Amino acid sequence: MENKEVAINRMLNRGVEEIIDRGHLERALRSDKKLRVKFGIDPTKPDIHLGHTVPLLKLREFQNLGHKAVLIIGDFTAQIGDPSGQSAERKSLTEKEVKLNMKHYLEQAGKVVNLKKAEIVYNSKWLRKLNGGTLAKLLSLVSVQQILEREDFKKRLEGGKSLRVHEMLYPILQGYDSVVIKSDVEIGGTDQKFNLLTGRTLMERMGLPPQDILTVPLIEGTDGVRKMSKSFGNYIGINDTPDDMFGKIMSIPDTLIGKYFTLLTNVTPPAVDNPRDAKIALALEIVKTYHSEVKAVKARENFIRTFSQKEIPDDAQIVKIKSNNVNGTYVNYLVDVIVLSGSVASKSEARRLIGQGAIEINKKLQPQPITITIHNGDLLKIGKHRFFKFLIN
């Protein structure tokens, strides 16, 4: 069993960007008080990637110290759309889209947080019940000037871009979640700081002790430049296959190795002579976390055999398709073939991969989204680490 003081020091210092009020939180953690630790998720997408796990892992640390994790599913706020970090108005989601996204969200979050010991609540439960009087009172606690202090709002207004009233309400509604559940601490990424501070302000003005805030850094994706996002195609999904996950981690720039170890694992980077060995250790640790040690070891073996010895993996994913041509082949646009493999979520992502020079058929680069003919046994390679073998029937 880990020493409590060691666990507290790690939680307050490892992978933490900022704590407000640090002194207050330190005293609370060293007391016998059981804290209510809030983390909110708007299910705007159906999948979780490693970037999403950074605050979830910090939430799990609080759980390990005996505190109550309060996981707020923003089924109401997701329909508005969090404007944080957005240079343009975010598309609003329908209730149906939100419910569809929630379907597997908790299952994936459960790979990080102990859901059996967590309190899971949906903010539609109280936000839908806000009447005119209650809403007016709530809005009176925050000034327009405060809302317009947001950097992203400032930039949009200065650039002549649209800023809608419902977007300005978002941080107030998210902050009200903290009031309802009586949060002691709220965790979020650095891009959420304004929203978290709004919750702290509302609590104080409504006669509650203000929540402490712990922010964690955003993590760059496999390109090493932009934050991890499905929109950028630089994400590593926690539901990726072991081989895909291992290969994607091996593709990150060397400069990210230390940051990935700090934010995505509980281990110290190994003392090795070269970055490749460090990345292998990193990939092994992360794949083990989301799959198993056996699968992680197998993924490592597959990677080494495939890329060190320039072989095609024996367990390349099989894609079965029906012939649509008289000679038993399959003819279609390259974009559609990539989507058919199940490796991408959309045609736009497939086009982006083609433009990046990431697509090969039978070891031949495919630089244009043209019509192609697939024969039985043809091999599709995406990036450096994903292989798909076509079987035509």
Structural write-up:
This protein has helices at 4-13, 22-29, 50-64, 95-109, 124-127, 132-139, 144-148, 151-158, 165-181, 193-205, 242-250, 257-264, 275-290, 293-308, 334-340, 347-355; strands spanning 18-20, 36-41, 68-73, 119-122, 185-189, 212-216, 317-321, 330-333, 359-361, 364-365, 371-374, 379-382, 386-392. It has 393 residues and is of the alpha/beta class. It has three domains: 4-216, Rossmann fold, CATH 3.40.50.620; 242-308, no CATH class; 317-392, Roll (Structural Genomics Hypothetical 15.5 Kd Protein In mrcA-pckA Intergenic Region, Chain A). The strands form three sheets. The chain has a six-stranded mixed β-sheet with strand order 1-6-5-2-3-4, with helices on both faces. It has a five-stranded mixed β-sheet with strand order 7-13-12-9-10. Helix 13 (275-290) packs antiparallel against helix 14 (293-308). The termini are far apart. The model has no long low-confidence stretch (mean pLDDT 85).
Pick out the low-confidence regions.
none
User: In total, how many domains does the architecture comprise?
Assistant: 3
SSE succession: HEHEHEHEHHHHHEHEHHHHEEHHEEEEE
Q: Tell me the β content.
A: 5-15%
Helix residue percentage: 40-55%
Task: Give the number of DSSP strands.
Answer: 13
Largest sheet: 6 strands, mixed
**Average pLDDT:** 85
Straight-line N-to-C gap: 56 Å
Oligomer: single chain
What overall form do the CA principal axes indicate? globular
Count of alpha and pi helical runs: 16
CATH homologous superfamily heading of the largest domain? HUPs
Rg from C-alpha positions? 23 Å
The CATH architecture category of the largest domain equals 3-Layer(aba) Sandwich
Q: Please list the strands of the largest sheet in the order they lie side by side.
A: 1-6-5-2-3-4
